[in-house]
Amino acid sequence: MEEKVQQHLIRCLVRLDLLSLCYVCLVLCFSYDLQTLDEIKDKSLRKKVSKSTCKDFVSLVQAWLSKLQCSKSLRGVFVETNQSELSAFISYALAFPNNFLALVDTYDVIRSGIPNFCAVALALNELGYVRS
Q1: How far apart, in whole angstroms, are the C-alpha atoms of residue 106 and residue 5?
Q2: CA end-to-end span of the chain
Q3: What are the extents of the domains in the chain?
Q4: What is the CA angle 126-128-131, rounded to 5?
Q5: What's in the keyword line of the UniProt record (predicted)?
């Protein structure tokens, strides 16, 4: 993983793509900081269009991930995802719900990155955070 990150950072620097560089640095900070979902302290997220709050965004994401894992059309592709990666995605979404982005190739794209991204994105969508 470190080699891929280094290559991406070099490409960003060569193109002077500062936005991408900042994004990669943010994702790396989030992903290296957390190892488990239990380490996420503030799990609440205010719904975008109302004053109510989802008290446990982590559980909402886990529910969506479970739905993806049980989906007949996916035939067990998303069996077990990397929890550290999921923790990073959730933490990033809690910090930046209006601008959620995820680097899905940090561990295993098909078995972890995509299902973790989809679960977080679907949970955000349920709370009214929709990309325009």
Answers
A1: 9
A2: 31
A3: 35-126
A4: 105
A5: Ligase, Membrane, Phosphoprotein, Pyridine nucleotide biosynthesis, Transmembrane, Transmembrane helix
* b/e 64-96 (16+ beta carbons within 10 angstroms → b): bbeebbeeeeeeeebeebbebbbbbbbbbbbee
Please list the pLDDT of the chain residue by residue as tens digits (132 residues): 456 655 655 554 444 444 444 455 455 555 556 678 888 888 999 998 888 999 999 999 999 999 888 877 777 677 788 888 898 899 889 988 988 887 787 678 888 888 999 999 999 999 999 876
pTM above 0.85, yes or no: no
Helix (H) or strand (E) holding 53: strand 53-54
